[in-house]
Amino acid sequence: MMKNLLHKLFSVSMALLLLLSTISWTVEKHLCMGRVMDIALFDHAEDCGMEASLALLDETSTVKKHCCDNESFTLQGQDTLNLDIFHFDFSQQVFLISITTTYLGLFQESVDKNIVFDSYPPPILDEDLNILHQVFLI
């Protein structure tokens, strides 16, 4: 029961790790007067409307310097997932296979069989060996 639960938890965590490492992450921030107004993940951050209000106030002149700024950074995901056991040299292959079989062997349940000899009588002795060798319990 516990083994199956741990196995499922490990499988789900490895799948999530693979998913998160292959996705490209883009985070965009909208700054207004040095303060973060909006943060967006995978999308464009919404502006605060300051530029639109400045454009309405001063329609004839172009606003050269404004207080808003957009920052974004992208973390590229992994594209190549072609890891193969044949890219390792022979000693690394032997090590990986031996560690794997040893680790998996830890989780095998040992089955102890009780052998019952009730239906078999003891052998018939010609002579009593304790008396023959004069071995007595005191």
From TrEMBL:
InterPro entries in UniProt: DUF8199, HYC_CC_PP
Domain of life of the organism encoding this protein: Bacteria
Name used for this protein in its record: Secreted protein
Species annotation: Maribacter orientalis
